[in-house]
Design a protein that fits this description.
Pfam family, one: RecG_dom3_C
InterPro entries: DEAD/DEAH_box_helicase_dom (IPR011545), Helicase_ATP-bd (IPR014001), Helicase_C-like (IPR001650), Hint_dom_N (IPR003587), Hint_dom_sf (IPR036844), Homing_endonucl (IPR027434), NA-bd_OB-fold (IPR012340), NA-bd_OB_tRNA (IPR004365)
Protein name: Helicase-related protein
GO molecular function: helicase activity
Structural class: alpha/beta
Organism: Streptomyces sirii
Strand content: 15-25%
Length: 998
C-alpha cells in the first residue's frame, strides 16, 4: 500500500502522472485522494444540457438522439455530427476526418454515454468538438472492464482537463484509494465526536465511491470541517503570535498635533466616522500591530444642494456638475482646482438670508468665513450661526465679506461696447424680457463695471451713498444685482408696481488703475431658515484657504479630513507612511494633506507651528536633490508623514520610527509590496488598508477573521441612482440599437456619455499572436479539414478606435465623439478630458483609463462593449463614473455571450446590485477565493478544495471558536501530533511566509 506522500509516478506511470501534475497540480497519492468529485451522476440520469457553461471543460451524461456524416470542401472532407438530448436541451458533438470512424460505429441513436470536452458555440449552437466519451450501456461482452468501472449507482464527476477526462481520473483514484487507510486524522477526537463527524478514512472512501447520497453528505460535512479547522488553527496561531509581537502602542496624546489640527478646522464627524475613529485609535493603542481594513470613502459634511451654484472662471456652475479638476474661484480672486467630490445623500438643508435679500443654501455642517464687530474673521458652521445669530440689541451679529472681483470669460462674442449695452438696457423703456447677455455677465471686471455704469447713468438716480434704479423689469433687476455683487458691491431689490423692482446699488470705489477696493462691503446674515431635505454633496478645494465662492458671490469654506490616524501616530513619536498606487494619486494626497494641515505641515521650518511636523513626498520621478532631502527627513525623523508610491519600498528608504502604514486602494498592491514597507519599522508598524471595493481574497480573509474591518457606507449612498441593464447584442440586436438611441436621448437632454471597450485597436495590438504563416504538410491538411469549426475563432475584443469610427458614422452621427486611451500623449489625454469635463464633447469612447479618478457629473450614460471581458469589480468601478451628478445614471452592459453562460450570469449579478461589498461576494462565489494562504489571487487551485467561504460561513465561524480555544490552551499543539502533521502539509514554507506577511 502506497504512503500518502508517495509520488503518483510510482503508482500510475509516468505519462498519467505527468498530466496530473502539469494540468491539475496533483503530485502525490495524498494530492489525488484530496482531489474530490465536484458532482455525481446517477446511472440513467441525463444532465441538464441547458445549463452548460460556455468555454469550460465539462462532463455530461446524455443520450444520442441522432447521428449523421456530412461532406465539406467539395467532398474532400467529412465530419460526423452527433446530437445529444436530455429533455432540457440539445448538444451537438462534432468529429472530423479519420477520427469519425469509431464514434460513427458506437454513438448510435438511443445509446447513453459520458462525454467530456470544452463547450463552444458554432452557428449559435452549443457543441463539443472531438470529445472523449465512455459508453455506459455496453453489453457485458463488449468491454466488460469499462462497464464495471461505471457500474456504481453514483458516478463521480471529477474536476478534469482536456488531457485527462473525468473517468480516467476515476480510474487513477481507484488505484490509490486503498491508501486512504493511512490518512492522518487531524481533528481531535473530542471535537469529532462532539460534532458527530465520521473518521477521515471513512470520509475519503465515501467521497470517492459513495453508496448513497447520505454517504456524500457525511463525507462533505467531515472534509469541510477538516479544511476549516486546520485553516483556523493556522490563523489562530498567527493571531496569537501577532499579539505577542512588540509593536509600539500609539496612544492618543493631549495637546498634540491632532488636537491642534482639530482646533484649527472646526469639524463635526459623522456618526460612522466617529465609530471608525474609535476602532482605529483603540487598535493603535494596543501593543501588537493593528491589521485593519477600512472600506468606504473617508469624508465629512459641509455640503450644499446639487443645484447650489459655484463660481468658476467661466461663470457659475451647479454644485452637481463639480468634478475633480474643475477650476473654481476662491475668495482671494485666485483660481484653484476641486480635488475631491463627495456626494452626501439627502440632508436637511438651511438657507442663509443676507442683508441685501440674496440667499444661499447649505447643510448644517457647512462652514462659513464670517466676522463680527471688533473681531477678525472666524470659521463657523451653519449650526453655530443659527444658534448665535443676533446681538443683544437684536441686530445681526455676523457678516460675510464680499469676494474679490475676478475676470470671467464664457467665450461668447461681445460685439458692442459694454457701456453702450448698459445704456440701451437702462433706457429702452423696460421690456419684461430685458436681460444682460451672458457674454457681458461673464466678462472681465472692467467690462462688467462698464455695463453697470451704462445702466446707472441712464436709469439711475442718486440716493445718498447709493444709486437707485426704479421700475426695472424683474429679469434685468436680477442681472443688475448679480453684476453689482460680482464687483464686490451691494445691490438690494425692492418690489415696485406691475412686477417691476427698484434696485438700490452701492459700488466700491474704483482706484485710478481701474482696480476695485471692496474691503468695506459686507453682507449681514439676517436669518437662517429651514428648507427641508435635498440631495447634497461637498467638494474640497486644492488651495490653502479651502474656500470657494458660491451663490450670489458669497464666500464659503470647505475641508475634507482623512488624516487623524496618521496625526495620532505622529503625536506618539512615530512616523506614518501612505502608499498610493500611482504618482498622480500620491501627489494629490500629498497636496491635500499639506494644504489641510497648513502651518502644522511645516514643522521645523520658519513660520511652522510648534506642534507641526514635515510632510514629504517620495515618488520615482522626483529629482535627485528633492529625493535626497526626503530620504534624509525620513531617516532623521524630521518628517512625520510621507506619501509615496512603490518608491517607498526601495532598500534605500529608511525610517526613524515607522509606526503606521496606510495603504490606499489596497487591491492595487500585492502582499509582498505591503510587507516590504511594513518591514521598514524597527518594530512591526500598525497597518491600515483602505479600499472602496474589496477583492475576493480580502473578503475571504475577512470571513476567516484574520482582517478586522471598518465600513464607512454613508457617502456613496448619496449618489444618484444608476440603472444597469444587460444588452444581449447577438440574440437581440435591436436591443443594441435601442442602447444607442438612449445615448442620443441623454445627450439631447444636455448630458454626456461614455462608451468603454476592452482594447485600443491600433496597429500595435492588432499583431497576430502565435500564428505562423505558410503552414503545410500534414498539419496544414488537418487544419484545412477542421476549417468549418476552426474558422469560427473567437474574435478579438472590440476596440476603441474601431467602435468610435463606427459610432461617429452611424448610430451617433452628428454627436461630438472623441477617443481616450492609454497610448495617447499625456497632453492629448489632458485636452480630451478637459474638453469632455467642459461639456465640449458629447460621447467619450475610451478604454478602462477612465476607471479611476475621472469625475464628470454631467455624464449620465455608459455603454460597456464586450462587458463579459471585464471582471465584476472593474465593471463596478467603471459604472461609478456615471450617476455622480444630480441626474440618474444609466449603465448598459453589452455582451454577445449566450444567456446560459457564466459570463452572462456575472453581468446579471452586476446589473442587479450597486453594493460594492455584495459584488465582491458575488465575485468570490464565481471566482473562488484563490489561494487564501498563498499568493494566487483567483482562478488558480485553491488551498480550499471542499470549503467555500460564502456558503460555509457558519462552519468557518464554529471552527474559529474551536481553533482559538485549542491554540490558547496549547499554542505549540504538543498534545495534537496529527494536527501538527496536517498543519505542516497545509502550510509549506512558502505559504507560512506568506501568512506571516499578512
Amino acid at each position: 500500500m502506497a504512503a500518502l506522500d508517495e509520488p503518483l509516478k510510482k503508482i500510475l506511470g509516468g505519462t498519467t502522472a505527468k498530466v496530473l501534475a502539469e494540468q491539475l497540480d496533483l503530485h502525490t497519492v495524498g494530492d489525488l485522494l484530496h482531489h474530490y468529485p465536484r458532482r455525481y451522476a446517477e446511472r440513467g440520469e441525463l444532465t441538464r444540457l441547458a445549463d452548460l457553461p460556455l468555454d469550460e471543460h465539462v462532463t455530461v451524461v446524455a443520450q444520442v438522439a441522432d447521428s449523421r456524416v456530412l461532406k465539406f470542401n467539395a467532398g474532400r472532407g467529412q465530419r460526423l455530427e452527433v446530437t445529444l438530448t436530455d429533455g432540457s436541451g440539445r448538444l451537438q458533438l462534432v468529429f472530423f476526418g479519420k477520427g469519425i470512424h469509431k464514434p460513427h460505429k458506437e454513438l448510435l441513436p438511443g445509446r447513453r454515454a459520458m462525454f467530456a470536452g470544452k463547450v463552444s458555440v458554432f452557428n449559435r449552437k452549443l457543441q463539443l468538438a472531438h470529445p472523449e466519451y465512455e459508453l455506459l450501456d455496453r453489453d457485458a461482452g463488449d468491454g466488460a472492464d469499462a462497464a464495471s468501472a461505471f457500474a456504481h449507482q453514483l458516478m463521480p464527476i471529477y474536476p478534469a482537463c482536456q488531457q485527462m477526462a473525468s473517468w480516467k481520473i476515476a480510474k487513477a483514484v481507484d488505484a490509490v484509494l486503498p491508501s486512504a487507510q493511512d490518512a492522518v486524522d487531524p481533528l481531535p477526537e473530542a471535537l469529532r465526536e462532539g460534532r458527530a463527524l465520521v473518521p477521515l478514512t471513512e470520509a475519503l472512501l465515501k467521497i470517492h465511491r459513495p453508496g448513497s447520497k447520505a454517504d456524500i453528505a457525511d463525507a462533505r460535512a467531515r472534509l469541510k470541517w477538516d479544511e476549516a479547522f486546520v485553516m483556523q488553527v493556522a490563523l489562530a496561531r498567527r493571531r496569537l503570535a501577532d499579539n505577542q509581537l512588540p509593536a509600539v502602542a500609539r496612544k492618543l496624546i493631549k495637546q498634540g498635533i491632532l488636537d491642534a489640527f482639530d482646533a484649527k478646522l472646526p469639524f463635526t464627524l459623522t456618526d460612522g466616522q466617529q465609530k471608525v475613529s474609535r476602532e482605529i485609535f483603540d487598535d493603535l493603542a494596543t501593543e501588537h500591530p493593528m491589521h485593519r481594513l477600512l472600506q468606504g470613502e473617508v469624508g465629512s459634511g459641509k455640503a450644499q444642494p446639487l443645484d447650489a451654484l459655484v463660481l468658476t472662471p467661466r461663470g457659475f456652475r451647479p454644485m452637481g456638475e463639480m468634478a475633480v479638476g474643475t477650476e473654481v474661484v476662491v475668495p482671494s480672486g485666485e483660481t484653484a482646482v476641486v480635488d475631491g467630490v463627495f456626494p452626501q445623500g439627502e440632508r436637511e438643508v438651511w438657507r442663509l438670508v443676507l442683508s441685501d435679500g440674496s440667499a444661499v443654501e447649505c447643510d448644517d455642517e457647512h462652514l462659513w468665513i464670517v466676522g463680527t464687530r471688533g473681531t477678525g474673521d472666524r470659521v463657523l458652521t451653519t449650526r453655530e450661526l443659527r444658534g448665535d445669530l443676533l446681538r443683544a440689541d437684536g441686530q445681526p451679529k455676523w457678516s460675510i465679506a464680499a469676494a474679490v472681483p475676478v475676470d470671467l470669460d464664457d467665450g461668447g462674442d461681445r460685439p458692442l461696447d459694454p457701456y453702450l449695452v448698459g445704456q440701451r438696457l437702462g433706457g429702452d423703456g423696460g421690456s419684461p424680457e430685458d436681460r444682460v447677455p451672458d457674454a457681458y455677465r461673464h466678462a472681465s471686471v472692467k467690462d462688467r463695471l462698464a455695463v453697470v455704469r451704462g445702466l446707472l447713468d441712464v436709469g439711475g438716480r442718486p440716493a445718498g451713498a447709493q444709486t437707485v434704479c426704479r421700475g426695472v423689469p424683474a429679469h434685468l433687476a436680477a442681472d443688475l444685482a448679480w453684476l453689482v455683487r460680482s464687483l464686490g458691491g451691494c445691490a438690494q431689490l425692492r418690489p415696485g408696481q406691475d412686477g417691476a423692482y427698484s434696485v438700490h446699488v452701492a459700488l466700491p470705489d474704483t482706484a485710478s488703475t481701474g482696480g476695485i477696493d471692496n474691503t468695506g462691503f459686507r453682507r449681514a446674515v439676517h436669518a437662517v431658515e429651514h428648507i427641508g431635505r435635498k440631495p447634497v454633496q461637498c467638494i474640497s478645494v486644492a488651495h490653502p484657504d479651502h474656500a470657494y465662492v458660491t451663490d450670489h458671490f458669497t464666500v464659503t469654506h470647505n475641508t475634507m479630513v482623512a488624516l487623524r490616524a496618521m496625526l495620532g501616530v505622529v503625536d506618539s513619536g512615530g512616523q506614518a507612511a501612505m502608499l498610493a498606487p500611482t504618482e498622480v494619486l500620491a501627489q494629490q494626497h500629498h497636496r491635500s494633506i499639506t494644504e489641510m494641515m497648513g502651518e502644522l505641515a511645516e514643522g521645523g521650518m520658519l513660520g511652522g507651528a510648534e506642534q507641526g511636523t514635515k510632510v514629504v513626498l517620495l515618488t520615482g520621478s522626483m529629482g535627485a536633490a528633492a529625493r535626497r532631502q526626503a530620504l534624509l527627513d525620513l531617516v532623521t525623523g524630521e518628517a512625520g508623514i510621507v506619501v509615496g508610491t512603490h518608491a517607498l519600498i526601495e532598500d534605500k528608504v529608511q525610517f526613524h520610527d515607522l509606526g503606521l502604514v496606510v495603504v490606499d486602494e489596497q487591491h492595487r498592491f500585492g502582499v509582498e509590496q505591503r510587507d516590504a514597507l511594513r518591514g521598514k519599522g524597527k518594530q512591526p508598524p500598525h497597518l491600515l488598508v483602505m479600499t472602496a471595493t474589496p477583492i475576493p481574497r480580502t473578503v475571504a480573509m475577512t470571513v476567516f477573521g484574520d482582517l478586522e474591518t471598518s465600513v464607512l457606507d454613508q457617502l456613496p449612498a448619496g449618489r444618484s441612482p444608476i440603472a444597469s441593464h444587460v444588452v444581449p447584442a447577438k440574440d437581440k440586436p435591436h436591443f443594441l440599437a435601442r442602447a444607442w438611441e438612449r445615448v442620443r436621448e441623454e445627450v439631447a437632454a444636455g448630458h454626456q456619455g461614455y462608451v468603454v471597450c476592452p482594447r485600443i485597436g491600433d496597429d500595435e495590438d492588432e499583431a497576430p499572436k502565435g500564428g505562423k504563416k505558410g503552414a503545410s504538410g500534414a498539419k496544414g491538411a488537418a487544419a484545412e479539414e477542421r476549417s468549418p469549426e476552426d474558422a469560427e475563432e473567437k474574435r478579438p475584443p472590440l476596440a476603441v478606435l474601431d467602435i468610435a469610427e463606427q459610432l461617429a458614422g452611424g448610430p451617433l452621427a452628428g454627436l461630438r465623439v472623441a477617443v481616450l486611451h492609454g497610448r495617447m500623449a499625456p497632453d492629448d489625454k489632458d485636452e480630451v478630458m478637459r474638453s469632455f469635463a467642459a461639456g465640449e464633447l458629447d460621447v467619450l469612447v475610451a478604454t478602462t483609463v477612465i476607471e479611476v479618478g475621472v469625475n464628470v457629473p454631467n455624464a449620465t450614460a455608459m455603454v460597456i462593449m464586450d462587458a463579459d471581458r471585464f471582471g465584476v469589480s472593474q465593471l463596478h468601478q467603471l459604472r461609478g463614473r456615471v450617476g455622480r451628478g444630480s441626474a440618474p445614471g444609466l449603465c448598459l452592459l453589452v455582451s454577445e455571450m449566450p444567456e446560459a453562460s457564466p459570463a452572462r450570469a456575472r453581468l446579471a449579478a452586476v446589473a442587479g446590485t450597486l453594493d460594492g461589498f455584495e459584488l465582491s461576494r458575488i465575485d468570490l462565489e464565481q471566482r473562488r477565493e484563490g489561494d487564501v494562504l498563498g499568493q494566487a489571487q483567483s482562478g488558480v487551485r485553491s488551498s480550499l478544495r471542499m470549503l467555500t467561504v460564502i456558503d460555509d460561513e457558519e462552519i468557518i465561524a464554529s471552527a474559529r471558536e474551536e481553533a482559538t480555544a485549542l491554540v490558547t490552551d496549547d499554542p505549540e499543539l504538543t498534545g495534537y501530533p496529527e494536527l501538527r502533521i496536517a498543519l505542516s502539509a497545509l502550510l509549506d514554507e512558502e505559504r507560512e511566509q506568506y501568512l506571516d506577511k499578512g
